Amino acid sequence: MHHKVWIWSLFTIGFLSITASPLSAQSVNIVSTSVPFLRVSPDARAGAMADAGLALSPDANATFWNSAKSVFAQSNSQLGLTYTPWLKDIAQDVYLVTAAGYTKINDNQAVTGGIRYFNLGQMQLTDASGNLLQNTRPKEFSLEAGFNQKITDVLSAGVTFRYINSNLVSGAINGSNYKAGTAFAGDISIFYNNLNENGAGVTAALTASNLGSKISYTNDAQSKQFIPANLGIGIANTWVLDDLSKFTGTINANHLLVPSYPSYTNSDGSTLTDAQQDAYDKSVADYYSYGVFQSWSKSFSNKAYSMSLGGEYSYNNQFFARAGYYWETKENGNRKYLTAGVGLKYSTFDLSFAYLAPSGSGLNRNPLSNTLRFGVIFDLASIANNN
């Protein structure tokens, strides 16, 4: 029963249901984690480019992708806000709100911070027989802060510390006492910036994110779940087309640093023998016994990979058009979709809008279809100078 709490959260944000085609346990073993809201793109700009945010030029949302790039930001201080209605096709009260920013201490150092708040709407809980139990309004949030240092003129490194709180359900249900799950995690990031004075050149990023403790919703130590530790690498190139136009192309690759949950069936779908059942029970016990470091090493045997390809055209550094394509393996959820968006930059703030295009139909329709993201970034340094 203790698995059901995080499975509710997982289903709610669509990571088990957003497959391009139906998947079964016989055909693929999806790598699952708790607090999957940490995998939702928290940024309208990168969201319009299929979540390819690792190596993009720095802005207020750097802490969510690669905090090390904040030391290369042109402005001394920014604050960003993003609102994302989630699963609009099947729910009306699920949304993600984020706030993030940075401040440069000097030319070589910067601090970053951010908060994510995920509201999962109202849920009706039932027991195994379908009897109504209680209504609940699950919610999750994370708080983070980071420090970043320029190592050379083109290279920087950063570290981010994160507190995670997942309050899906509380109290006694079906004989189990549930509580809010908490965890502590961190990111390690490296950023390479070789842009010239005109803004043309290559940027690259390497980020190991959500490296931290397991999370549990009961007092049962055996029920602790893995958080979505991830290894990501990205590269981008910016071309100056003329005096007013630029184009940035970027690609990101990600791998979940989480071991696969043992598969219950044989590859042909047949029932397990007694000996196979005993072996399966042992593999499940081993899965829950993995420590944090051991889980990272075990993760390289899974195939939970994703790729993001994005592009951004800018005119006069004021008008922006963006698009992207996202692809992932079946073990990671089998999502494939197109994204698009636009941006407008004013003297002291930027506006961004992102849209996830519909894909699939009927039972195969992607629940993330028609997802919108709205973002605004305030240039606090410019605002202060104007005042």
TrEMBL record:
It comes from Rhizosphaericola mali. Residues 25-260 form the Type IX secretion system protein PorV domain. Pfam families: PorV (PF19572). NCBIfam families: PorV_fam, T9SS_OM_PorV. This is Type IX secretion system outer membrane channel protein PorV. InterPro entries: PorV (IPR045741), T9SS_OM_PorV (IPR047799).
